[in-house]
Amino acid sequence: MLIGILSDSHGRFEITKRAVELLRSRGAEYLIHCGDVGEENIIDLLAGGQPPAAFVWGNNDYDRERLAAYAKSLGVLCLDTFGRLELAGKRVVVAHGDHLKLVHQVTNEKSADYLLVGHTHVMVDRRTNGVRVINPGALYRASVKSCALLQTDTDHLEFLTVKTN
Fold this sequence. Notes:
Purple Acid Phosphatase, chain A, domain 2, 4 helices, five-stranded mixed sheet, globular, 165 residues, alpha/beta, six-stranded mixed sheet
C-alpha cells in the first residue's frame, strides 16, 4: 500500500492543496495527516473518499469538537490525538509528536511497524527498537515544504518537495 503522509498545515490551504494533489498524482492509496490541520478547509482537501484519509490533532488544533463533527460528515477519519490503523497488514500509529511519552511508549513497546508524527517541522526517517519513525516535514514554517510517500510492501520512503509557486 502506498501511504501519503503530510503534517503541520496550520490551515494553509494552497500549499496543502498542492501536497494532496502531489500525493494523489503519485498514486497514494491512503492519506494520513499528522496534526496541526488548522481548519475545515484542510479537512475538505482530505475528503472525497479516494483515497481514504485520516488525521490526528496537533497542539495547534482548536475547536476540536466542531472540526471532528465536520470531518465525520465528510467521511474523514479523526483519530483524536493518537490513533492506530492496520493498513495492508502493517501496524501504523499516528500521533502529532508533541506528547513524547506516547512516542516513547510506542517505540519501547515495539507496538507498531510505523510511527507517523509531525510537530517538529523537520523531515525524519529513523528506526527505534524496530519501529520506523517518520515525520514528513511540514507545509508551514519550514524552509522546504514537504510531504512523504511510504510504500509498505517494499518499506520504501520518499520525501517530496511541495512547490510554493
